Amino acid sequence: MPVVPVADAQVHYDIAGSGPALVLVHGTGSGGAAVNWGSTVPHFTGAHTVITPDLSGAGRTTDSGAPLTVEGLAAQVIAVIEHAGRGPVDLLGFSMGAPVAAAVAALRPDLVQRLILVAGWAHTGGDEYLRNLFTLWQTLGGHDSDAFGRHVTMTGFSRGFLNGIGREQVELLIPNLPATPGTLRHVDLDTRIDIRALLPRITAPTLVIGCTQDATVPVEHSRALHAALAGSSYAELDAGHVAFFEREAEFVGLVRDFVLVS
Description:
Layout (H helix, E strand, L loop, with lengths): L2 E4 L2 E9 L3 E5 L6 H6 L11 E5 L16 H15 L4 E6 L2 H11 L4 E7 L9 H16 L1 H12 L2 H15 L7 H10 L15 E6 L7 H10 L4 E5 L5 H4 L1 H14 L1
Parallel strand pairs: 3-4, 3-5, 5-6, 6-7, 7-8
Antiparallel strand pairs: 1-2, 2-4
């Protein structure tokens, strides 16, 4: 369980497997890497050294509790890569982790061999749907944790997926994103995302993955990221926001194909 100090934070990360390094950057939620990537990591450890940091507000990482910034979280990912001594790496960011990963690739191109952005977005303020969704999460999180968990579950997964797994399994999903102070710090950052100025600085080969049934970050945001990144590749999964749960085999296949042949 390595730890690296970054500004006011003690950033924890896990490392598993062997081979070229693949860094997975989690999305919103205090569960951090364990919740996002627990079932995904084993698919890659046979051919990769997989590194999964817990960003501030999540997992075992501790800090002062100050408001988060994309650049500050990117600095944590950069420090983890350097501390692990594995760069340049293939870097994948999901949801909130996508703008963070994009910032890493823009600010430290020497550390990123290939970049994968999953269900991400570049600018919250330009989309009233997105801005209002995150504002609603802030309100629910401050007053009704169960309602917060239910709304996140409803928007995080497609209707077909939720109906397919049934009520008992859906009820088990709801506590996976509790309205903890760490989660709400992430949601606060979500309301302020704007990495448009960084996108032209990204030079790494990039794959953008959108989710056609995404009710958290609508797929148009992934399409816009692809359009903004000259020379990037693009793929869509017929899934809700958490595509690596709904379409695990397809997701793993897309990532494997990109990091092995690009």
